[in-house]
């Protein structure tokens, strides 16, 4: 069974960036195969990894629902949909990327969703790691991960607002039917020294700060130049911080 790594936190705090750097760490340290899942409807994990995304699972669902008769004659619906998902998988030497795209629209998509969910679950099982970058809300995370996450990183920038969002997510976890093995706070765009107010609030949440990622100007440059974070130099401060985070919380 694959090890599932996921991220949660307020919008814009750096979840996708950390997800991309986690994939980079696992790929570069040979902890493969890896399935990267972009579960954010406004997907951009692909971009962050320098990949164009021609088809999403949402596109497959929409196309199928628009023309259910489009299944080649004599072919089982489930097998047809599974073939489309396989074609949508973006294969790289050290990881594969699956982009979920738009969420279910209105109307009854149950049958299609069940087939797609069952197949993506089965697919995920054949990888050593599944790294899921989801949207700011937590509603869909349990479904995307079949209710089980090995490492959930609660990401916040260096702000009390970000940290309070982490507190709220932590308080919500029980009601989400999500089984989490390891849970910790990751602070991004952090100064060298976190101040006492921030540390006190983190302590009140009752979770350890497992990673501190400094403000790294190279990230903004790469973003502007649309370059893949996989190309960041090994000595970039953000890369080194994520390498330390994984060594401490998710050893090979
Ligand atoms: N440690 C850091 N240093 C400097 N810039 C950073 C750092 N982490 C993230 N950023 C920048 O912050 C912006 C938002 O990051 P990112 O897209 O990873 O956030 P997000 O939490 O995934 O956002 P969303 O909730 O919209 O999905 C990006 O421009 C990214 O380059
Ligand atoms: Mg994101």
TrEMBL record:
Matches recorded under InterPro entries: CobQ/CobB/MinD/ParA_Nub-bd_dom, CooC, P-loop_NTPase, ParA/MinD_ATPase, TOPRIM_dom
GO terms classed as biological process: negative regulation of cell division
MF GO annotations: ATP binding; ATP hydrolysis activity
Assigned GO CC terms: cytoplasmic side of plasma membrane; cytosol
Pfam families listed in its UniProt record: CbiA (PF01656)
Domain Toprim: 1-72
Coiled coil: none
TM region positions: none
Highest taxon of source: Bacteria
Annotated protein name in UniProt: CO dehydrogenase maturation factor
